[in-house]
Description:
The chain is an alpha/beta fold. The chain is built from seven helices and 15 strands. Strands 2-1-3-4-5 form a five-stranded parallel β-sheet, sandwiched between helices. It has a five-stranded antiparallel β-sheet with strand order 10-9-8-12-11, with no helix packed on it. Strands 13-14-15 form a three-stranded antiparallel β-sheet, with no helix packed on it.
Amino acid sequence: xxxxxxxxxxxxxxxxxxxxxxxxxxxxxxxxxxxxxxxxxxxxxxxxxxxxxxxxxxxxxxxxxxxxxxxxxxxxxxxxxxxxxxxxxxxxxxxxxxxxxxxxxxxxxxxxxxxxxxxxxxxxxxxxxxxxxxxxxxxxxxxxxxxxxxxxxxxxxxxxxxxxxxxxxxxxxxxxxxxxxxxxxxxxxxxxxxxxxxxxxxxxxxxxxxxxxxxxxxxxxxxxxxxxxxxxxxxxxxxxxxxxxxxxxx
Length: 250
């Protein structure tokens, strides 16, 4: 006997979570709601632990948006986006194989989404790449990045950007280094740079971005290369020739 499909609800408003759960109980009675999350970080933690077949994912959540969560889902489950976005953003959904539900929920629209996703259970989840690019164009730009969701061993933790001393490319990952810890994230350094405040986070090498507030000073090694000294850690960070102009006045 095949196992009943499992779902995760990611919605920061408790009333809307309850409403969605109640509607799903009517429209898809065999669906098991295995978890509920109220933030992006909690969503990723539950996703790793519960491995649902489908996620009902609110686009606007505290700490980390649903779009940021979706970038890390990487084909692990089917996605139904929950959104209050305008018609321009909805047009992006209409072009893709990923479904959506508008807030406030109507059982009629949810019924359409449920019908579509039920047909896809057992197939590979649709790629989100194109949709996420279109949504990035359609929705208002966010302010500079404020939180990082990172792996520390087997745990996922939330790091405020202000805590970060530097970011450094590490093969397929990026190292996030704070005064007393290190973590890894699955985001390329170049993508991070586009979201960080350029007044505070300076690229000093093609593989390193440093928090200017964490810099204690600069020095040179025996080869004459410029090195950044940090206030809270002992390692020194190499500055490439193309970025030495940042430290001419130091």
